[in-house]
Amino acid sequence: MTVPHPSLQPYIDAWTQSIEAISELVSTLVDGEWNRPTECTGWSVRDVVSHVIGGECEALGDPRPIHSLPRDLFHVVDETTRYVEVQVDVRRHHTGPEMTSELEYIIIRRSRQLRNERRKPDDLIPHPLHGKISVADFLIARVFNVWLHEQDLRRALRQPGNVNSPAAHIARDVMLNKLPRVIAEHAGAPKKSAVVFDVSGPVEFLRTVRVDEEGNGSVDRSPSLGPIVTFTMDWETFTRVVCGRTKAKRVADRMKVEGDTELAERILGSFSLTH
């Protein structure tokens, strides 16, 4: 057995904790609970677990299912959602025991693969949605995806937990890295402006997204003396809003917005569903 590169080990450990938590969560579900809706549009608990399984199957290099999607799936709106949905729809009629068995088996296989990882963190690998991506970035993306869906499942099943886990902190950094593009490009924040996110709770942080004179965005830990917008909210609300799990107006009582209201609305409207 080889030893993974030391810099990959924290991500492997975070992924392991989170995906094993999902396995434990769903191991005792009864039939009706598999059909509970989640905050992922169009997806039930079964669908979210199917998506996690499918993501790990593709990480292992398993052949993609040959499957034609129904035409009435309203949440399938483009090629990306169509690509993602195949792994979900192919399992839509699987029973609870079939789901848990496949999940347990995929965890065993993927854990073995990660224990024997020989590639370097910066080695590039192909990805159907992201093009070329480094081994480290791909593993980070898997940690983020698995933790995010663990939280989707926990909310649907009313079983909170792991909000401050190692995977949660990796997910925080992934979400923060998305903010500059959302604010500078999608929301069109003015040049030489700053937007502040003041987040409280188990994962607490203050970050400033700055747009320079060229219109490029960046994020840092330094406070801004005159931000154009300041968002103040708790960690769970931040996660749900940034990842498109809920509209800002539905959690208005858990979020304070100060500054340019039109820009704030554009920013909040630019966050989209993350699968």
From TrEMBL:
UniProt KW Isomerase keyword: yes
Molecular-function GO term, any one: isomerase activity
Domain MDMPI C-terminal: from-to ranges: 170-266
Residue intervals of the Mycothiol-dependent maleylpyruvate isomerase metal-binding domain: 16-154
Segments passing through the bilayer: none
Pfam family, one: MDMPI_C
Taxonomic superkingdom: Bacteria
Keyword Isomerase: yes
InterPro entries xrefs: DinB/YfiT-like (IPR034660), Maleyloyr_isom (IPR017517), MDMPI_C-term_domain (IPR010872), MDMPI_metal-binding (IPR024344), SCP2_sterol-bd_dom_sf (IPR036527)
Keyword annotations of the record: Isomerase, Pyruvate
UniProt protein name: Maleylpyruvate isomerase family mycothiol-dependent enzyme
Organism: Streptomyces hainanensis
